[in-house]
Amino acid sequence: MKITNKHNIPATLMALAERDFYTKGKANYSVTEILSPPRIQRLREKHFDEIETDAADMLWSLMGSALHVVAERSEVNDHINEERLYLNIDGVVLSGAIDLQKIEGDFVDITDYKFTSAWALRADKPDWEQQQNVYAYLVEKVKGLKVRSLSICALIRDWSRREAAVKPDYPQAPIQMVQIPLWKMNFTEKFIQMRLDAHRHAKVSADWGDELPECDEDERWIRETKYAVMKEGRKTAVRLFDTQEEADELKSTDPKHYIQIRKGEAVRCTGNFCGVAQWCSQFKREQNEDS
């Protein structure tokens, strides 16, 4: 991966950006990798040396790495920081780095640190739930301890004291503990096997030069098309609708109303949040269909 410095940040930060904090150790897959879409993972591997990112765009990634380094240095009785576990599953080695394990007898409470936004914290986060439960599976299988709870220590990067004072549903502090549902072991085992099978299939397709499995709507962060009923002289929408028919009905009640179509998109693709959109045949095909 090529790290650029388009905004002329100091050399000390550039050195930090260029340092590779991530390692999966001697594993075939990390937990993060099996949870990522197989198409994206294969394209990242194939084009790794061509992928370009600017150091200024890596701010929160760098903050996350720094947090882990600091947390690793702290020492609290019965707390294990930054431990990587390995498990052989049918000849495939899976590894996962767990931020924090609190041990009480034969029980473990798992916590993961996440930088996030206030808006994201109020939305469902299935990826957090999946990651934490795979970690729980590793702990129980590798260490023989029973996982009692899962949680996220969310650090809200855009927290506002003013918003917290006037909105009851807004996070009331810049650090929030979020409880994560704990799955049954047999369900987690089936989920892990499904993810491993998906990545095996994609790897075989890549090796044979076949078309990679496509990303589904959830993996592409689909934003649906919306129909906004606007009013002359007003900047914000009177109301948003999912269908043209509903919007037309409200529009007909006032001659100053008009409809603004807010076209849906695959946000992960159009914003290149995957980092490989330029090499993705699925994205290119859909661009051609829309043009």
Can you offer a commentary on this structure?
The protein has 291 residues and is of the alpha/beta class. It has 11 helices and 13 strands. The chain has 2 domains: 2-208, Lambda Exonuclease, Chain A (Alpha-Beta Complex); 222-290, no CATH class. It has helices at residues 11-18, 31-35, 38-46, 59-73, 118-121, 126-143, 161-166, 185-208, 244-251, 267-270, 281-290; strands at 2-4, 29-30, 52-54, 79-89, 92-104, 107-116, 146-156, 175-180, 222-223, 226-231, 239-241, 257-262, 265-266. Strands 2, 4, 5, 6, 7 and 8 form a 6-stranded mixed sheet that branches. The chain has a 3-stranded antiparallel sheet with strand order 11-10-12, covered by helices on one side. A two-stranded parallel ribbon has the order 1-3. Helix 3 (38-46) crosses helix 8. It is globular and about 70 Å long. It starts with a strand and ends with a helix.
Percent in strands: 25-35%
Shape estimate:
globular
Uncertain ranges: none
Q: In sequence order, what are the helices and strands, one letter per element?
A: EHEHHEHEEEHHEHEHEEEHEEHH
CATH-derived architecture of the largest domain:
Alpha-Beta Complex
User: What name does CATH use for the topology of the largest domain?
Assistant: Lambda Exonuclease, Chain A
Structural class: alpha/beta
Average pLDDT, rounded to a whole number, is 93
Helicity level, as a percent range? 25-40%
Total individual domains: 2
Say what oligomer this is. Answer: single chain
Q: What is the end-to-end distance?
A: 31 Å
Query: How many β-strands, per DSSP?
Result: 13
Number of helices: 11
CATH class of the largest domain: Alpha Beta
The major β-sheet equals: 6 strands, mixed
